[in-house]
Write a structure and sequence with these properties.
Its main location: mitochondrion. It is found in: Mitochondrion outer membrane. Its EC number is 2.7.1.1. InterPro entries: ATPase_NBD (IPR043129), Hexokinase (IPR001312), Hexokinase_BS (IPR019807), Hexokinase_C (IPR022673), Hexokinase_N (IPR022672). Pfam families: Hexokinase_1 (PF00349), Hexokinase_2 (PF03727). The chain has about 750 residues and is of the alpha+beta class. About 40% of the residues lie in helices and about 20% in strands. It is built from 23 helices and 23 strands. The strands form 6 sheets. A 6-stranded mixed sheet has the order 11-21-20-19-22-23, with helices on both faces. A 5-stranded mixed sheet has the order 14-13-12-15-18, sandwiched between helices. Helix 14 packs across helix 16. The protein starts with a strand and ends with a helix.
Amino acid sequence: MDTIGPAGLRQGEGSPCNPQEGLPCPSDSSELVQECLRQFKVTGAQLQQIQASLLGSMEQALGGQTSPAPAVRMLPTYVGSTPHGTEQGDFVVLELGATGASLRILWVTLTGIEGHRIEPRSQEFVIPQEVMLGPGQQSTLISWTKGFRCSGVEGQDVVQLLREAIQRQGAYSIDVVAVVNDTVGTMMGCEPGVGPCEVGLIVDTGTNACYMEEARHVAVLDEDRGRVCISVEWGSFSDDGALGPVLTIFDCALDHESLNPGAQRFLSILQETVMFLAPKCDVSFIPSLDGGGRGVAMVTAVAARLAAHQRLLEETLAPFRLSQEQLAAVQAQIREAMIKGLRGEASSLRMLPTYVRATPDGSERGDFLALDLGGTNFRVLLVRVAMGGVQITNQVYSIPECVAQGSGQQLFDHIVDCIMDFQQKQGLSGQSLPLGFTFSFPCRQLGLDQGILLNWTKGFNASDCEGQDVVCLLREAIGRRKGVELNVVAIVNDTVGTMMSCGYEDPHCEVGLIVGTGTNACYMEELQNVAGVAGDSGHMCINMEWGAFGDDGSLDVLSTCFDASVDQASINPGKQRFEKMISGMYLGEIVRHILLHLTSLGVLFRGQQTQCLQTRDIFKTKFLSEIESDSLALRQVRAILEDLGLPLTSDDALMVLEVCQAVSQRAAQLCGAGVAAVVEKIRENRGLEELTVSVGVDGTLYKLHPHFSSMVAATVRKLAPRCVVTFLQSEDGSGKGAALVTAVACRLAQMARV
């Protein structure tokens, strides 16, 4: 596009606009006409300059710049959503200024998606000139336009003025719900095309535009999430002279004789210009059928819908918002279950001795093998512990689902095959190095190298393993493979491995925490408190197996119907109740069930059930981490959800975000209550006024979720104020820890021999 207009462009070179000077004086009338028309010719380059100038003014106004004043106002309208078709009800609309010197009153009936459209009934009243220019009796009117000049109105709340006028009449009971700019009403009243209508445009007696903006870009709102409709008030654009090069002497003459010289100049640009200036935007122009009247009613209806949906959302999420008293009660219940478990009494916390009696002291040396089995992946590691630190070489092998849920022999043969492959690649074939086996499932240990599998978790269900010594199962598999020699020194829970791994760096680390696919904790307990293990002095690391906390019904008061649905659909109904409220394997499913419920209430996705949400495990826990990221704009959140096949609006995206936040927060707070119970137990064991302790942590949920770790720490601070707790993220997790358990065991054995 080279030019816009019938002829050439004149007037300019930055010359001042004076309607009394510069009129063309050619010799004949034909040339006079052509000369006049040439002044309305606008080049593509000039339009791009105007576009850039307008965009700059918009960004300045959104950012709150006041000096110099931006050329457009960018006023927030506090309309936070566009219609999605379900709005219903009867509304009265008063329309002032949309068609010049008139007042229109409409009765608008909205019938929702299924209903037959009912045309608004309206009556128009002419406003006399003396009223338009006479005295006026918060939405605050900034300035009159379109010929209105009523005194005593600019700077006043026009809604309050209307309410006072209604009261003076005394015969009507009318509730003024919203004041709406006609441009906003036009946007809200348009029938959506392929997508929602998100821009409004008025080109009539006056001109203006509005659009849906990200709230985080609007400085005066101080909001991080959601959107808001912005009235550009672009009629005043060029008050700073930005349009000078394209103004003609005729524009100047018209401006000079208007009610507000120097203000409200803007050239209307049609669709071809938009296509030229914004070639990457697919823009459709949809004529508003009845002006802003229907749109004003729609603003009110949308506000009512959002309020009703927000109430339903809050009611649904209320059970997930735990009070300080509820969390303190969980802490006390965990503490009581810990004491019972240590005594050997019936308890949902098994409190299993691990026979790990010390944390690293830094003198450990040697080469060690480590195995790490605790989820869908299995690792084999070579760990070299030297004076300069720990060096690790590892390889990850997958555990196919058919193996994880097949026979025990098949599972352990697969593990040994992986070890043999690793040894061959590392040149270790035939060597017998001390081996630590991280086995991240509930075990009752009878010694450092003896562990009876109590029950499978995390989706494993290999047969003929529960009730068996897993070290024996591993040794039998080794025996079935010729030429393999492995010295299995220790079986280690992944939580214990995490504690030991961090303990190598920090001697204060006496607690281990896992929050990933599953969840668990361990800590160093006084040996005298551990029933069934001989000795009254020293310490013993206790594997709490806290994922099973609440299996005795103690968590029922906090459990929701959504938790019950997830539990019933799991492979171990009624078991691992605490884990199912905290860990990454289940949070996505909890969210999915909540979304299904909200959809059934009509709160989400226009009440339309989607096949996507019916699919189990479709909503991965990693989506919670991505959706709750502070760096994502709402449109990016929408993109994540749309990739799942969810046909959602921005309102839906905000509500899904709230659901994710509520589920994640509850998980983190419950985890924090557990940690608080543990550190308080250690403090009281030692009779300290204040305890300084570190917690070694591993697990993808804890590490990758943007807020989980901070919410855990905040909960611990509130529930255990006399404990100074530092959280350390394990760099290599349980693999390095298993080798360090083995290294410590070798060091202690050597000391005993000496």
